[in-house]
Structures are given as structure tokens and as C-alpha cells.
Amino acid sequence: MSHSSNAPIPPSSPKPRSRRTPATPPPEPAPAPVPTSADVARLAGVSRATVSYVLNNAEAVRISEPTRRKVREAAEELGYVPHAAARSLRAGHTRIVLLPTSHVPVGPLYSAFLNELQWALRRLDYTVVQYGSLGLTGDEAARAWAELRPVAVISLGEVSLSAHNVATLKRAGARAVITLGPVGVPGAHALVMDQAEVGARAAAHLVERGRNRIGVIVPEEDGLELFSAPRLAGARSVPGARTQVLPMAYTEESAAELAGRWRSLGLDAVFAYNDEYAMLLMRALQDEGLDVPGDVAVMGADDLLIGRLLRPRLSTVQIELPTGDHLASLVDRAVREPSEITGRHDLMSATAVRREST
Amino acid sequence: MSHSSNAPIPPSSPKPRSRRTPATPPPEPAPAPVPTSADVARLAGVSRATVSYVLNNAEAVRISEPTRRKVREAAEELGYVPHAAARSLRAGHTRIVLLPTSHVPVGPLYSAFLNELQWALRRLDYTVVQYGSLGLTGDEAARAWAELRPVAVISLGEVSLSAHNVATLKRAGARAVITLGPVGVPGAHALVMDQAEVGARAAAHLVERGRNRIGVIVPEEDGLELFSAPRLAGARSVPGARTQVLPMAYTEESAAELAGRWRSLGLDAVFAYNDEYAMLLMRALQDEGLDVPGDVAVMGADDLLIGRLLRPRLSTVQIELPTGDHLASLVDRAVREPSEITGRHDLMSATAVRREST
DNA sequence: ACGATTCATTGACACGTGTAACCCGTGACG
DNA sequence: CGTCACGGGTTACACGTGTCAATGAATCGT
């Protein structure tokens, strides 16, 4: 309705009233108003525009050297630091890459990978923001993320995004939405890291070595289904493997309990969620008097260094993750040319490594 | 110094010209202008102010229920998501907690702690931003951090902040600057987690058990000095302990090499940087034919579960970290009442745990 | 019937920044 | 001497939001 302001405008009184009048003047212990570029300008005796030009050393506009110095000195004296929010508001875009954190005690392998990714992104001048999504639905998470107007989102798949959610993010300015999970999301740049491969390699290796009654250790800890479910599925998919699901917690008690009833299970091999669970169980089985790999073959995953310290040395599935730099530069390209990178990219490879426990 | 605009102001022509005219009109594939609250207002047929009131469900201002519905529906239809930067620009403050990431492969114990801290902060409605500081000086890091106008900064001590840096951050609006490092910084709320304690407990334990020629394993990996240096210093500070520094990398080769020349070192005990290094070295020593703890006592740190899997079981220093929730609520209090929490708080406790390797 | 009070809504400003467009001397050149 | 170019700056606007003060309309009290 009344969308055109046809009311006569009063002269708009160009009162240069002092800023800093937050309506509570009296008992303020002067909360040290953070200096703005206007303060710098005032102190240097130039206009705010000049300050901006100097501090962003714009080549296009020519400012005399004396003025530059004055401005720099004023900025230094006031300890001026630009306001990132204001800057990106004006610019219309950010360099934020959103990296939803998993609340899971994700393994050392992935920790390292994520760390590396962060550093690589920093090096490309992105600002990495971790943002939890604990207990959020896809819709809620997408909205919360979109508020930050990130230029890219790298989701590890802890919250399942619908195509609609991806659209929300893109509408909010995200030039790349990347899923690292096992399954691609329509509209997103899916960089698939299919954990099923891991389980498949492990089971295939065991079958190859003549074991086919395979127990699969699934962590009881919350939040690990994201990794454990596909690994289990992968193991199940191997022809000739007869798998049985065995929940276990990451504690000595849980491992001992499982080992205690092992003989009644009728299994000749076990594939654990990862090396840590494998080591824990292997120790418990040995303490129970079982021979590894004679009575039972044990297979881990992730190829951690400590896996080689136990005797017998732990066989495992070695996972080749993309380097953080690789993924970061991929993100960078996607941001620059949104339409270029697309579709499914398979980035992970898994190889069984036989040591002594199989 | 013409700081007062005395030029007569033209009527300022209230032209309601269409926004979105970025000077490149012709070949635009319509980059989907992200919807603003103005768009919502237009669609709902109300003013922008009303939209703001409704969407922030302000209790103070009463808006009729029909209008609320109209606005909500319009927002839904457009997929409107508020712009966090604009919001906090207007608000004058953020809820960002800056958590400089270490580029170090920090141990599982600290990973878990940091994860927990993040989640706890999220639960208190803070936005956690990881921000690397690789190769930055204290000055540079402080400036970079200040740009985000965080309400709190939790530094792990990877970059050493001067009092001046802390002042910069506070001037930029940080209500709490918290250092987790071994040493307090003037002006900051120092929550000291002194790693020296760890080394001291370990060495004291070894001395107690009659060993005083102690090798101290220091990782060759970059970035761990932050933890390893104070642990070493702590060990050295124990009366009666004669320590010797032994650099070692986290690889089997490095451990084997060190074990190979062990007998020539004339040591009867070793305190490793953490359990992982301890396990690695212990295995190498055993492979070299040395008896643990007969020939050499081995002590780790962090009390990882896997440390109990080797034989002999690894003695270690158990570290009691504050819970993430605890630290988070402490941050929260500091933000609400900046002057309340202050000074040094010692948050860490360390206890030697004897198992079988000492 | 008319001022007083409540209700629902809106106009206008401020937050801090970047940048396009403009302005004003001054020396060069025709 | 006019004008042209150009160096050195400044003015003005836009980005998207929250919120105070003001405005009409409707209801109430007497």
C-alpha cells in the first residue's frame, strides 16, 4: 500500500550532533568507545574517505605521501582496527567458510585432516568459522548458517541437508556448498568420501584370508553413526561375508565383557570400527586366552601408528584422505567459478594393509 | 579542516529508485539477490519496522496477530534469513567467541576438551570462531582477531600476547580475554593451565621409585613446544632428578634409532612428552632387548586408554582438565560482569598414576 | 460529544565501511 | 588567455538491521 513516501520531507536538519549518546549518559564508566575510521580521519585532519583509501592502500586513487603518513600515524595512535562486519556488509559478501563441527570424538585421522583443511583455507585468506549443529534439524541448521552469509559451507554430513536447505544457503550467498558425507545432496557440490569403501575393503580382505564369519564392532558412543553405519554397510555388502553386528563401548569393561562371551558367538574374525576399538578388543580377547590371528582375525581401520605397537601388529585399512590443501584449493576454485566444479567427486581411497593380526 | 558541512543541502531527492543496479546491467544471469527484510515488508504489505518487530518477537511492541501471520508467511515464502553482520553492526556488539586454533596435532585429550568447550559455548548462544594465527606475531594476531569484534577471546597461548595486545582486543570490544597458557598476561583474565605441573609429577614419581637419571622425550614436531617446554621445565625443577633432553619424532624409525643408542646414555628412566610418544619408545626399547621397568622405567602423560593395552601397562600422569561447561560458564560470567572474574585461576591438576612400567 | 488513553503501525536515524562521482587548484599546452 | 589534464582530496550514498519517537485510528471515560 503506502510504499511511496509522499509526505513532505522536513529539511532533515543536518545537525552534526555528537555520536555516543546511548541514552544513558550519567553513570557511564566510559566503556572506551572503539575507535572508528572517522576518529582516525578527525585526528589526521582529513576526510574519512581518504583514511579508507590509505588504509586499504588503493592504487587507483592517488594520495600524497605526507598525507598517507599522517593517516597511518593517527591510526596507529588510536589503535584503530577496522570493523569486519561493517566492511563485509558494505562489500556485500564475506570470505567466511563455514565448517560445522561435529560434536563427536572424531578420530585422530580426521582431526588432523580438518586441522590441515583449516590452515589451508586460512592461507587462502578465508575465515574459518566453526559452527555446531547439535540437535538441529536440517532446516534450523541451514538458517543458522545462512545468517553468517558464508561464501562456502563444508558440511561433514552430521546434519542431513535437503535440496531445499542447500537452496537456502545458496540464496544467502554461498557460492559453494560441499558435502563430505557418504551421499551427494542435490544442488550441492558433492565431494563424496564414502566410508562404505572402508568396510568393504576390510571384509574382502578377511574373506580372502578364509574367514567369513565376521563380527563387526559398532561403537555405542553417540554421534559416530555417521562413520560407523556406512562402514558396517560396506562390510555387509561383500559377497561371502556373513556379518554380525557387535555393539561395544570404548572402555575396558565393555571390551572385556564382549571378549568373555566371544567363544559362544561362533565367529572367526572381527572388523572393528577403527584401530582404537580394534586394539582394545584384541587385548581383551588375548586376555581371555584367545589366539590372534589363530582363533580370531582382527582388523582395524585408519592405520594409526599405535596399531603397530601391539603384538601381533594390527592389520588395518589404510585411508587415503585428500590433503587439506587439495580440498581447500578445490573450495577456492568453486568459489571463484561456482558453475565449474560440480557433480560427484570421489576423494577417498581405502586399501587393506595386512600386518599380523589377520 | 572543513569538518562542518556548511554547503547548502539540495532537497536530497527522495527517489525510491530500485536497488540492485550494480552498474553492470546487461548480461547478468541474475545472481539471485539475497532477500532482505525490506523485501519481506514489501511482500507482506507492511513497513520494515513491523517486520523487524515480528521476527524478533518483541514483547514491548504490540502487533496484531493477523499482521504477524502475514509477515511470517512472507518471510517463509522468500526464505528470508537475517544478515548477522548487519545485525551486530547495528547492535554494536557480537556474541563471537574467538578460539585461535593451534596448528599443532594436539593430543586427543585436548581435542576432546576443546570440542566440549565449543559445544558448551554454543549452548550459551555464542558463536565460536576458529581463527588460525600461523606465523603471526602477537601484534598481527591481535589486530586480525580484533577485526571480528569478538566478545571474548580464549587464547591457548600459541601466540604470546603482550599487555598491549590485550588492550587492543579490549578496546575493540572484547569483554574477556582469557589465556589458557602456562603464564598469565597482564590485563587478561588468566586461567592458568600450567603444564609444568605435569612434568613435575612425573619426575617426582620416578625419583620416588629410586630413579634419578631421567631422559625427557621432547617431540621434534613443530608447534608442540607450547606444551612440551613447560613439561620439560617441570621435570627439571624436581630436586634429585638429573634430566637429559632427548628429541624424538613421532615415527617408528626415530624411536628405533633412539632405542638403538639407549644403553650408551646411562639413563634408568624416561619421561615422554605424552602417552603416545611413551608407547612408541617403550616398544622400541623392548625390541632392543631392554626390560621395562627393570632396565628402564617409562612414564607417559595424559592417561590415554590405549596406554593400558601394552604390556607392561604404561604409568602415566593423569590430567584433570576443567570441563568444557565449566570454562564456558566462566567465560559467560566474565562477559556479563567484566570486572568480576579476574586474576589467576589455576584450573588444572595433575596426578601420577603408577601402573607397571615404573 | 469530546479529550484521554490505548493499540497498531510507520518514518527516520544510526551503526562503520568502501567507492563512484565530483570539486578545486595548478601547471601545460595550443 | 582559454582549456585541458591531472594530482589530491572530499561529498554523498549504499549495504541491512534495530529501535525511538511520532502518527492515526480506535476505544474509553465522563
Automatic annotation (TrEMBL), chains A, B:
<dbReference type="InterPro" id="IPR046335">
    <property type="entry name" value="LacI/GalR-like_sensor"/>
</dbReference>
<dbReference type="InterPro" id="IPR000843">
    <property type="entry name" value="HTH_LacI"/>
</dbReference>
<protein>
    <submittedName>
        <fullName>HTH-type transcriptional regulator GalR</fullName>
    </submittedName>
</protein>
<feature type="compositionally biased region" description="Pro residues">
    <location>
        <begin position="23"/>
        <end position="34"/>
    </location>
</feature>
<feature type="region of interest" description="Disordered">
    <location>
        <begin position="1"/>
        <end position="36"/>
    </location>
</feature>
<dbReference type="GO" id="GO:0003700">
    <property type="term" value="F:DNA-binding transcription factor activity"/>
</dbReference>
<dbReference type="Pfam" id="PF13377">
    <property type="entry name" value="Peripla_BP_3"/>
</dbReference>
<dbReference type="GO" id="GO:0000976">
    <property type="term" value="F:transcription cis-regulatory region binding"/>
</dbReference>
<dbReference type="InterPro" id="IPR028082">
    <property type="entry name" value="Peripla_BP_I"/>
</dbReference>
<dbReference type="Pfam" id="PF00356">
    <property type="entry name" value="LacI"/>
</dbReference>
<dbReference type="InterPro" id="IPR010982">
    <property type="entry name" value="Lambda_DNA-bd_dom_sf"/>
</dbReference>
